[in-house]
Amino acid sequence: MKSNLELVNDCDQFPPNRDPSFLYRFMVNGFDCPFGYLLEATVNTFSWPDYWEINHDGKTVKLLGSSLEERNKQIHDTLLAERERGSFKILKGWTSEIFSVYGPQKDLVLSIPRIAAPLFGIVTYGVQLLAYQSDTSDGAIRIWIARRAKTKRTYPSMLDSTVGGSLPTGETPFECLIRESAEEASFPEELTRTKAKACGTVNYVCRTDERGGGELGLFTPEVQFTYEMELPKDVIPTPGDNEAEEITLMRVEQIKSALGKGEFTPANGCIVLDFFIRHGIINFENEKDYIEISSRLHRTHAFPTA
Amino acid sequence: MKSNLELVNDCDQFPPNRDPSFLYRFMVNGFDCPFGYLLEATVNTFSWPDYWEINHDGKTVKLLGSSLEERNKQIHDTLLAERERGSFKILKGWTSEIFSVYGPQKDLVLSIPRIAAPLFGIVTYGVQLLAYQSDTSDGAIRIWIARRAKTKRTYPSMLDSTVGGSLPTGETPFECLIRESAEEASFPEELTRTKAKACGTVNYVCRTDERGGGELGLFTPEVQFTYEMELPKDVIPTPGDNEAEEITLMRVEQIKSALGKGEFTPANGCIVLDFFIRHGIINFENEKDYIEISSRLHRTHAFPTA
Question: Which positions fall inside the Nudix hydrolase domain (chains A, B) (predicted)?
Answer without folding.
Answer: 113-272
